[in-house]
Structures are given as C-alpha cells and as structure tokens.
Amino acid sequence: MHRCTGFDRHLCAVDVLVLHACEPTRAGREAQRVTADQLLTKSKVGHRVIHVSLTRSDDPRQLLKDHGLQVTAQRLAVLRVVEIHPHATTDEVIELVRAEIGALSKQSAYDTLGVLTDHGVLRRIQPMGSAARYETRVGDNHHHLLCRGCGAVVDIDCAVGERPCLTAADDHGYEIDEAEVIYWGRCPTCRAAPAGA
Predict the structure, then answer these.
(1) Rounded to an integer, what is the distance from CA 44 to the centroid of its chain?
(2) Strands 143-147, 182-185: parallel, antiparallel or unpaired by DSSP?
(3) pLDDT tens for residues 159-195?
(4) CA dihedral sign, ordered 123, 32, 145, 195
(5) Crossing angle of helices 106-118 and 73-84, rounded to 10°
(6) What are the residue ranges spanned by the domains of the chain?
C-alpha cells in the first residue's frame, strides 16, 4: 500500500483510470489505488484528491529557497499540512499545524499562508460563500468541483482549449492569463444519502 509521506508533489486529475487517492484518516495519512469513479464514490466530509507527481522540487526546503523565501519550521509545517490536506481552509491548516509543531497564532498562520501564496508556493481559492482554501497545485490552470452537501473539493483539469481554458467572446483589450471556474454539485455519497440525513 502506498503511503503519502513527506512532501510528495501532486497533480490532480479526474479523467485517469488508476492513480493514488490520498485521504486523511484518524490512523494517519494512508492511500490506496482506486479509479477516479471509486474516489468520487468514496467522497464524504473532508478532502479527497487524485494525484500524480509534478516536476517541482520534492524538497520543501529547496522549494522555499527557489522562491526566495527563508526556511522556517512554521513554513515547512504549513507546506506539509497543505500538501497532505489539499483544499484545507485556514482554520484547518491552523489546527493541523498546531498539532504538528505546537503553538501557532492565527495571525502567524494568515501571514505564512499569505507569503506562500504571494510567492507562488501555494494557490488560494475562495469559492463564493465558502472559506478560502489552499493547495500546493500551482503553475497550471485547473478548476474545482465542490459538493454542496458535504463540502468536499476535487480538482478538475482544463476541459476546453489551452490555458486559460476558456476563450472570452470579447477581451476588451486585456491579455487574459487565467480563468477560474467553480463547478458545484453533489458528490455520489451525498446523492446516495437518504433525504434529511
């Protein structure tokens, strides 16, 4: 059984047959081989992601240095937490980092997440009506699918054209470099749940 440890780099994809699916569990960070359909069927409260390796540095210290950032225990802990728990909210990051390194103020967490986002180490997404979430998948233009029932989030690769994956009917003279699409729906688990459950 594959075990996601350290600072594995991942690229999410929903349209592949078999990849690793990491999901946080009480027993630890474990993963098993599943298909994309099985992964979506397993969705419950929490965050699930299918992933394959990227070419970015696997060494979090080197990753920080490559982005001109000082290496600190706090930054390393935040990177580990977001890597293991993609699409984590700030409150989730704070709780998990505190469990790993002890004391961490909310302000320090916001500052660290802000610096890592500003330097392109993390990506921040904030779907309408939802808390900001963070992920380590940067450098591409993927989108997100959110479950209205349980809040699970999965990455969706570009489906139309090249980056930014959507072509504006009129760009008004702008050079468009990114398009953000949020898909909303209900995951298979929520769809299968009895009404009112």
Answers:
(1) 16
(2) parallel
(3) 665 555 666 777 788 888 777 788 899 999 999 988 7
(4) negative
(5) 80
(6) 11-192
Pick the CATH number of 11-192 from 1.10.10.10, 1.20.1250.20, 3.40.190.10, 1.25.40.10: 1.10.10.10
Per-residue pLDDT tens digits for 115-172 = 999 999 999 998 888 899 999 998 877 888 889 898 889 888 876 655 556 667 777 8
**Separation of alpha carbons 27 and 32, rounded Å:** 14
Closest CA to 37 of 154, 157, 151, 140: 154
| C-beta of residue 49 within 8 angstroms of C-beta of residue 155 | yes
Q: Are strands 28-34 and 19-25 parallel, antiparallel or unpaired?
A: antiparallel
Are 165 and 179 contacting, i.e. CB atoms less than 8 angstroms apart? Answer: yes
Burial of 125 (0-12, 13-18, 19+ CB in 10 A): middle
Q: In the numeric block, which tokens belong to residue 16?
A: 């592949």
Q: pTM for this structure?
A: 0.63
